[in-house]
Amino acid sequence: MLQYQGCINTIEQDEFAQVNLVKHLIQSLEDRRLIIHSVKNFLRISKGYGFKEIIYKGSKGPYEPNYSAYELCNDVTYSEKSLKCLRKILLNFSDPVTTSFMNSILNSLNDVTSEFFLVIKEEIKSDNPNQLHLSHNLERRVRFYFDLIVDLCRIMEVVSRWVPEIFLDKELIHSNRMIEFMFFVLKQIFKMNFEKKLTAFCKITPSRTRNLAQMLTPFIGILTNLHREIRQSTNTRHDSLRDFVKRSDSFDI
């Protein structure tokens, strides 16, 4: 339902539905079994592109989206009211809902990224596409891990845009975990010839939209959002950008 802007507009007209939609989106990320779908639904309220499923013209009733040349849905969905509701909920740092949400995202990121790099290291032995012979299950695992990492990072980017205080408050540890995650990813990329292996994998699978830039772009968005907030903030409880980065020992390579 959230893949159509018309449906989102209808939900926004009901305050009860609006609040409960955001709460359910937050809580749904705690269930690892459904997280690949939960992250997509969450991103739909923040200019997400949905599942890019194949659709047929005229099949979506009154909520007819835009189409690409390949009959893929190009409808961009967005809900500023939902994002403001998200901010209101997450600004309550002592609420277990906030803590659980941040831990769910960061724990999932750490787990799936570690597994992703392990698979790349152990199973993709060559950066030559002609020398790669992967099973169908292995291909699915790599695509699954990569897409989930990108979507989870994009959720962190949304949070850094709408609730930057949750990373900048000196009493919270979420910024430490995020910085350590970023440096872990960068270290692994430079250690294992990752980009060439990923490129080789994409050439033998229908993965043209997957690339290293897609994986790292949310990092730039997160740091940009936090830098903007730091420059504008006068709150003494917030870190400077230098202190924000120095919280982590990731520089001690």
3D structure, described in words:
- It is a single chain.
- The protein is mainly α.
- The chain has two domains: 1-90, no CATH class; 95-253, no CATH class.
- It is built from eleven helices and two strands.
- It has helices at 5-12, 15-28, 35-43, 80-90, 96-123, 136-162, 165-168, 174-191, 194-203, 212-232, 241-246, and strands at 46-48, 77-78.
- A two-stranded antiparallel ribbon has the order 1-2.
- The termini are far apart.
Summarize the structure.
With 253 residues, this protein is mainly α.
Secondary structure: number of strands: 2
- The strand order across the widest sheet is 1-2
Q: Unreliable runs, pLDDT <50, ≥5 residues? A: 49-63
Assembly type of the shown chains? single chain
> Percentage of helical residues?
55-70%
Largest sheet geometry: 2 strands, antiparallel
Strand residues, percent: under 5%
What would the principal axes of the Cα set say about the shape? globular
Structural class: mainly alpha
Rg estimate, integer Å: 19 Å
**Count of helix runs:** 11
Number of domains: 2
Q: Helix and strand succession? A: HHHEEHHHHHHHH
Q: End-to-end distance, in Å?
A: 46 Å
Helix and strand arrangement:
Layout: H1 5-12, H2 15-28, H3 35-43, E1 46-48, E2 77-78, H4 80-90, H5 96-123, H6 136-162, H7 165-168, H8 174-191, H9 194-203, H10 212-232, H11 241-246
Antiparallel strand pairs: 1-2
Helix pairs in contact: 2-3, 2-4, 3-6, 5-6, 5-8, 6-10
Main features:
253 residues, mainly alpha, 2 domains, two-stranded antiparallel ribbon, 62% helix, 2% strand, globular
